[in-house]
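S.,

Sequence below, as promised.
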Amino acid sequence: HIIFFFLMIRRPPRSTQSRSSAASDVYKRQVHGEVKFGRAMSMRKLKVLFAINTGVLSASLKELETVVSKVLQKPFVDYTPVYNFQGPEIDKIKNKELYNVICTTDNKDVEYLLRDFKNIEWVHDLYTGCERILQSDLLRNNDKIVLTNCRDVSKIPLSEFAAGSTLYFLRNFPFFEEQKRKREWHARIPLPFLNQKHVAIFGYGSVGVEVGRVFKQAFNCRITAVKRETGSLPPYADAVARLDDIKKVVSQNDVIINCLPNTPFTQQIFSKEVFENFKKDSVFVNVGRGTTVDEDGLADALLRGQILGAGLDVTAQEPLPKESRWFDEQFRHKVLLTFHSSDEYPELLEGRGKILDENLHKFAKGEPCLLYTSDAADDLLCVDLGGRRIIKKKKMI
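The prediction came back faster than expected:
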């Protein structure tokens, strides 16, 4: 037994050869620009162009730059910040062919970057809306470029604004605010419920689904999801309607929530004729894009009492000029303005950084699906093709 014990001690571990092979494999991967972390986890080297924005950085963009810069400080990431997408700053960058990732804010000038950096495989939008980035012909027509965004970071605050502004008008908060201002007491005022109301949500992407969840679970509303293509019944929806049937849909629902993006198809899709078909004393809420609304038609519908009130987080012109009609006394109790701020919250930047961090690891490992792929309101179709390429563009809404 003693002899056997010493023989076992002197016996080389069975895994020595495999470990040596693994070490050799690590060296080969490093030579080819990849880094290996732990077992069965190879990371390719990412060369990132951090294109922040043109012009002078605002305070919020400076904060975003700080968060993103910290996220990009990884062993497998080499990044270069740029502030102007054309001109000497870009010209000074060497070895443009080595860059494979662009991290940016939604900006149509990405087109200029893609002309100079011809081996880009992934564009990540630090914002939710991608409509300006999608103006790039080089991006739309290149199936090798993955596009992702931060679509989930705003869905909860936007859904809360949709519910809050709906209650604001249905429960007649403007009336009580006015009576308080006048120092008058009016009791026992009959007010309608939000409970079991019919709610139509236009654009049933990430934000639309969350809006549907809130209205369904909190207020037991009947939810109609309005999409370009109907297909199967989506989460929290009781019915699905086609976007082409917009006039019919608005005539049958008590609350209309607009979550549509800005695309050529959605420009003023809520037209004067559509507002004329709104159900009497309905509520309109816009958390999508201001360009989707004919504001002349909306104003007319509000003034003649067709629509009870409108909650507008977004407007056609931003920022609103002081002479805007929405500041006029006649709309003081009919329009709730939040100045494109309903999706701002203390943890917003942290959420954007977390999404980027997760996506960097997934992309570097070559995993087939990146997180939070752009699919808002069905303008992009997410498909898994078994590789890093998971976005297939289709006709925009």
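The chain has 13 helices and 16 strands.

Coffee later?
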